[in-house]
Amino acid sequence: MGILEAPAPLFSWLDAQMEGLLPPWGRLVAWGALAALVSMGLYRALSAQGRIARGKRELARARRELDGYDGELGGAWPLIRHLLRTAFGQVGRVGGPAVAASLPLLSLLIWLSTAYGYAYPPAGTEPELRPRPAELEARWREARRNGTEEHAAPRVVVADGEGRVVAEVALREPVPILHKWRWWNALVGNPAGYLPDEAAVERVELELPRQEVLPLGPSWARGWELSFFLALIAASVALKVLFRIE
Fold this sequence. Notes:
Blueprint: H1 8-19, H2 24-46, H3 49-68, H4 73-115, E1 129-132, E2 137-141, E3 145-146, E4 149-150, E5 155-159, E6 165-170, E7 177-179, E8 203-206, H5 224-243
Antiparallel strand pairs: 1-8, 2-5, 3-4, 5-6, 7-8
Helix pairs in contact: 2-4, 2-5, 3-4
């Protein structure tokens, strides 16, 4: 688990509480509204709203002065410098709080992409597996209990051309790619697990079925993204207008 995934257990618990009350698309709408409330609330609390408002007025005034100038180019340079200085100052006032306020949203997006992104294939079916290098062979082994052998999750088995197993990984979550651990996984982990560092295989791509939360519409609109982002944008705009957030 990466640093940005630390809130994942809390997200899973909250989602489980809503499961009996709302359908998947309803839970995504609720997540979008909650994400907007937290992000906009954090931004408002962390940012200097008065200074930002004054900066907006100063920036508009600097633009009007430059637009209204009708002299030589040399005389315009002080106006241009003032406009740029005002604009960069406004970016500095807004940028830090905006980045800080976006971190909870980023953590939620990472969790949503796993919880609502893909699903395991139906029992008795095998997804297409594409190992890299391509000369290796990847096989799907379903989760099952057979005598003394017990797999709590399906497994991906990679073998070389002579049938020797070079890697075997339990797919703990339905994620469409397996790879070796990289430094950025300290921030964002792969919930499916990792290939061994010493293995001859670099990655395995899996054609897993996507979850659909809406029964109608084109395929691209049935996933979690549309329901969540529409709710996020609508709630963010409403909060900005209602509380006059700069």
